Amino acid sequence: MRAGRLPEPFGRFVDRAEAQTFTFEGRAHPALAGDTVASALMAAGVTTLSRSFKYHRRRGVLTMAGQDANTLVQLADEPNALADVVPVSEGLAVGGQNYSGSLGNDRAALLERLAPFMPVGFYYKAFYKPKGAWKLWEGVVRRLTGLGRVNAEAPHGYYDKMYLFCDVAVVGGGPAGLSAAIEAAAAGAEVMLFDDQPAPGGALNYARFDAAGERAGRVRDELVRAAKNHPRLKVYTGAVAEALYEDNWLAVVHGNRLYKVRAHTVVVAAGAFEQPMVFRNNDLPGIMLGSAAQRLMRLYAVAPGRRAVVATANDHGYGVALDLLDAGIEVAAVADLRPDPPSSEMKDAALARGLRVVAGHTVFEGLGKKRVAGVRMAEITGQGECRGASFTVDCDLVCVSVGYAPTAALLCHAGAKLAYDEATATLRPDRIPPGMHVAGAVGGAHDLDAVIAEGRFAGWAAAAAGGFDGRAEPKFPNGRGDVGVNHPWPIFPHPKGKEFVDFDEDLVVADIENAVADGFEEIELLKRYSTSGMGPSQGRQSALATVRLAARARGRPPAEMGTTTVRPPALPETFGVLAGRSFNPERLTPAHHRHVEAGARMMVAGLWWRPAFYGPPERRDECIVEEATAVRANVAIIDVSTLGGIEVRGADAAEFMNRMYTFAYKKQQVGRGRYALMTDPSGAIVDDGVACRFAEDHYYVTATTGGADGVYQNMLWYNAQWRLAVDISNVTAAWCGVNIAGPKSRHVLSRITRDVDLSAEAFPYMGVRHGTVAGIPVRLLRVGFVGELGYEIHAPAAFGEVLWDALVEAGREAGIRPFGVEAQRLLRLEKGHIIIGQDTDGLTHPHEAEMGWAVSGKKPFFVGKRAIEIQTARPITRRLVGFALANGSGPLPEECHLTVRAGEIVGRVTSVVRSPALGRVIGLAYVAPDQAEVGSTFHIKGPGGRLIAAEVVPVPFYDPDNQRQEL
Amino acid sequence: MDGQVARPPRRSFIYRELEAAGARFVAVGDAEVAAHYAGDDETQALSSLGIADLSPLPRTGFKGDGAVDWLAAQGIAIGEASNHAVRQADGALAAKLAPGEVLVLDGLGEGEAICARLDAAWTPVASAFWPVPRRDGAFWFLVTGEHAATMFAKVCGVDLRPDKFSNHAVAQTSVARTNAIVVRDDLGAVPAFHLLGDSASARYMWHCLADAAREFGGRPVGLEAVRSLIR
Amino acid sequence: MKIMNCPLNGPRNISEFVCGGEVEAMPAPGAADAAWADYVFLENNTAGVVREWWMHAPTSYWFIAERDTRSDEILRTYPASEVFAERQDFAT
After folding, report:
1. Please, are residues A845 and A871 in contact by the beta-carbon 8 Å criterion?
2. CA distance A112 to A506
3. Are A536 and A572 in contact (CB under 8 A)?
4. Are A752 and A807 in contact (CB under 8 A)?
5. Which three-class secondary structure state does DSSP give residue A417?
6. Span A837-857, average pLDDT
7. Dist. CA B214–CA A687, nearest whole Å
8. Of A109, A671, B62, B229, which is most buried, counting CB atoms within 10 Å of its CB?
9. Distance in angstroms (rounded) separating the CA atoms of residues B74 and A135
């Protein structure tokens, strides 16, 4: 036996053969493999683990189950780690948090003297006057309160997510959960069991179920063996079930992985957490739950103290006392809150071993400074009252066993409600939703036989619900051992206060009562006002007492109080789990690598990567001008693969196009393209492209980069209603596209084009052709977004890189160069072409954007037709006009700068650029209709609010007769 | 005019990634395929967790009224139910995606080039159904081995475990947040899944799969190793 | 996460689907302005069972679902052709 550790069989989780060393607050401490930080510190005699949130009081082990905030410590890369969960590893450095000075000597502890001036809700009342005061106070308050520090330098961990599928998911590896899982698996279901502890067994690992202290281990070994041997049952330990969502989608955190468990049925056998007793100084280190003391002894072989007092109101407290005796710890007294405790196996055994039991008494006050040094005990004279004589008992450990609250978070996520039950004096899950089953302590059962029988029944029912119904229905237990476990009022207000109801938030009895007196009687309001249950432990140790106190303050039974809403996660989880392994799809054009190799600055366009310009960032503006100049004066190519491509094929293809787009398509010749403008039912412009008619029954229509998927889905939706004889296919990714533009584009393209006559006569502007370029079968579109002679070459995606290379090679002599999206935006603006979504907004109808020419009035119907008719029958409220700045010097207006008149907003700038071809600043802007005449002047509120005069000029700005693109 | 060049061979959408992984390419018909990878034994990975890129190989699709009947007339066996595939005599696979839509994958052996024959046989005249450019629109990966279904559970919400997703079952679903088609097509006793999705997202998906496969020791495998399981 | 049954692809995570709003008959092209304004801008927002358009995104397959907006329970899903069986034309 190592010094300070109990002999076997104490210490189920620790390996005595493997010693480790870690540091806490800079001091080295020994530990065993399997220890948590808290158990090792307790073994080393360190009882203060943290400082409380508000008053900086010393806090130590409370639950030993990761359920409370007393054990929050700082790790190098992780703040707010739970010391009773985090395993010790060799060299682990652990620190305290939320103190000034040192954990042992926290200067901020003086704050407690100010407690009278910090009543409940004080921060709603203080700091806000005079106006602006909070700005000053915020920094002070933030320094003095709060939790650990985030290490911004911490390396990124790898977190991921994975689906698991099963017929039955069981949450909780105690006797109920193990029994349920074994029964369900026996019925033929595929079962997964999730338990947050390092080993299955639940309370069987640490609690005492008989006088001899052997039953728990025996039952555990039988159940665990049966579970591990079953081929259809998989047990996950160290797995925290954090949330239960619709249709039994269970979120389980297991290390750095989030399991997304999809189960047909779920059995919740998550147990219950023991509740503290409320009395003066009940937060002193050394005062802990009875189950915490048992966990320290049974799991970690740590003696929680030398001389103990047990306060209890049930059999479990006697089990604790017997365990303490077995561990060689002196038990000075057992305060049994019940005036006349009934005889029971464990109580009788405890008496037989000479325990001093004081019935009808309670621990009324904890004594001591750094750690509990004794208690004052008193007789209970009424609900929460101790008016009689009191006496003190020296001790360094107080174990409290006065009842439980259910671990019902998952049930509540699924829609169950917690209701206070008078008969058992506990909160019980009620209105269990279909597809869920409850077994064991979470439902109030504490008798081991009943717990196991309930587990079996739940497992049977869960399997049967999934069709595995071949096994006989197990007997549901009669008695459950649910009465006499919870004491109805383990709350003892003290004239001097400091009886903590909520440890996280340093709330005492008077705080809850005052909150009700302040008018916050409803439980949800009370929670927010008092902050009870809002700390890291989310009310696990305070909700029950808060409900009781609030009910009494209101003069109502607790059952009428209701409970606050329970939301995921059930236990704290890291941001890494939430953020880990998110999927962010990205699309590359086939020639992507050629752009990167050519020095392109890539930009995001929807999911796509596109070249913004080619060259170093510091030469951005020059590069754009050079690229634009190459298009205007020579020849250049741009990757337009991101444009949407949709095949519309079938006998009704032209009819369908006529309905989807504003223009008229029925008379469009085969071998010709036509502008395609799409509006939504409200008449607003939503997309545009070119409709290429390759056959009577075949249109190939392009869509904008960002709009393609929406256009395609929209088309399918409409035809699900119209049922026209037409097939619609989204072939965006199947076709790459390169636009070759500039006066020399015909010359360059003709060098590698075999079977298409590119002459102006044979292949005029807006013609479309099938052909072969560089040996690749292509579609050629003679379109001119940038306003020069040019061809869009659409090729099967697999040949995209080859096509790009072939064009670069064919144009080498001519000095061809690539151009990016930025230059294209400039060039199209010089031509006055709009970009949907930049020059239009969600309300722009075609006439506002001067695109009435693209709307056919003769068709009986197109999407948006009626709305456009209604809008054009009314006075127009704005127009999109081309403008030029009289004086191009000084800071330029930017997109979205407002156009104003007499202080009123009339519109905004949608595009603006300094045009190299024109040598002046041009743009598009919305203005009032009476400002839209060519030659009018309007004002833009530019950078710094400076008014900039702009003149309305004709569009296109460049080559107004469109001669260049039709060469 | 200097246009008399032959059609270039088809390369994978991710041939750079394959090269980086040590791929050696061979010509298969009009395509260049990653045949094997430099270094260790691919056969072992194949039965554990292997990912093959088959993107350059022939596949096609037809869609519209009459597509199924026409394919049947072309000798293609197609099942009644949607989302189910049928193995053809020469090794090709015909997956019915919807009542009027079929995806055809050429066999991985050295059999008849069915897709080329179908593409050539289809004529636009008076058709009420049309070809779907699957070879350019979609990448084609093959994920093989005992860990394949578990690996998919990291990127896909459909239960693909062998006893839940039968051989030749088809799932049109979301894989790593992109649209994809999964077809189970075991290689003898080795579980295998075809994965087809947006060709522009091929590199993205390749990296997603590599990341998901890492914990199982998954690695790229070449066509030769795949073929060794077909013979 | 909720599960929805796609008539073509079977039960899938709701994240594979996109809601397209209530199934509502489009007014005739010549209907009154008010009828069109109602169709374009107003939703019934019914508390109870509604018929809605849903799309299975991986297949772009549109279908109809009957859903109780009070409980979010999906009662039935079926192909759009059950409602839209006939070719729809607009008078010239």
Report:
1. yes
2. 10
3. yes
4. yes
5. strand
6. 94
7. 42
8. B62
9. 79
DSSP letter string over A713-757? HHHHHHHHHH--S-EEEE-GGGEEEEEEESTTHHHHHHTTB-S--
At residue A527, what is the residue type?
K
A145 confidence band (pLDDT: 50, 70, 90): low
> Residue C10 is part of a domain; what is its CATH number?
3.30.2270.10
A249 touches chain C (CB under 8 A): yes
Tell me how close the Cα of A669 comes to any Cα of chain B, in angstroms.
Answer: 18
Per residue in A472-524, pLDDT (tens digit) is 999 888 888 899 999 999 999 999 999 999 999 999 999 999 999 999 999 99
Structure confidence by residue, pLDDT tens digits, C22-72? 999 999 988 999 999 999 999 888 999 999 999 999 999 999 999 999 999
Identify the three-state secondary structure at position A431: coil
- Of A585, A584, A581, nearest to A163 by C-alpha is A581
Query: What is the pLDDT, as a whole number, of residue A2?
Result: 42
- Provide the pLDDT for residue A114: 78
Q: Chains A and C: how many Cβ contacts under 8 Å?
A: 63
Q: Do A861 and C29 touch (CB under 8 A)?
A: yes
Q: Is C42 on the interface with A (CB under 8 A)?
A: no
- DSSP alpha helix (H) spans, A230-344: 290-300, 315-326
Name the DSSP letter for residue B72: H
Enumerate residues 793 to 832 of chain A having a beta carbon within 8 A of any beta carbon in chain B: 796-799, 801-802, 810
The per-residue pLDDT for range A335-382, each reduced to its tens digit, is 999 999 999 999 999 999 999 999 999 999 999 999 999 999 999 999
Q: 3-state class of C70 per DSSP?
A: coil
Residue C71 lies in a domain: yes
Q: What's the CATH number of domain B59-132, 3.90.25, 3.40.50, 3.90.1150, 3.30.70?
A: 3.30.70
Report the distance separating Cα A529 and Cα A515, nearest Å: 7
pLDDT at B7: 86
Q: Give one DSSP letter per residue of A200-228, joined into a string.
A: S-GGGGT---SSSS-HHHHHHHHHHHHHH
Q: Let me know: does A871 contact A688? Beta carbons within 8 Å.
A: no
User: How many CB atoms sit inside 10 A of residue C82's CB?
Assistant: 10
Rounded Cα distance, A460 and A465, in Å? 9
Q: Which amino acid is at A785?
A: F
Query: What structural domains does chain A harbor?
Result: 1-120+129-145 (3.10.20.440), 160-273+406-465 (3.50.50.60), 276-402 (3.50.50.60), 489-576 (1.10.10), 584-873 (3.30.1360.120), 875-967 (2.40.30.110)
Q: Which helix (H) or strand (E) holds B170?
A: strand B170-175
Cβ–Cβ below 8 Å for A861 and C84: no
**Domain B15-57+136-230: top CATH class:** alpha beta
Q: What is the ipTM of this complex?
A: 0.98
The predicted-structure confidence for A292-340, as pLDDT tens digits, reads as follows 999 999 999 999 999 999 999 999 999 999 999 999 999 999 999 999 9
The bridge status of strand A307-312 relative to strand A330-336 is parallel
Q: Residue A867: what pLDDT?
A: 95
Report yes or no: A699 at the B interface, CB cutoff 8 Å.
Answer: no
CATH 3.30.1360.120 in chain B, residues? 15-57+136-230
Which of B61, B134, B52 minimizes the C-alpha distance to B94?
A: B61
Contacts of A21 (CB under 8 A, 6+ apart): A28, A29, A30, A31, A90, A91
Structure tokens at A46: 């360190």
Residue that the structure tokens 């073994």 belong to: A43
A-facing residues of B in 149-208 (CB < 8 A) are: 150, 153-157, 159, 161, 164, 176-178, 198-204, 208
Residue ranges matching CATH 3.30.70 in chain B: 59-132
Question: Among all chains, which residue has been given the structure tokens 């001097």?
Answer: A496
Instruction: Check residue A280 and report its DSSP letter.
Output: B
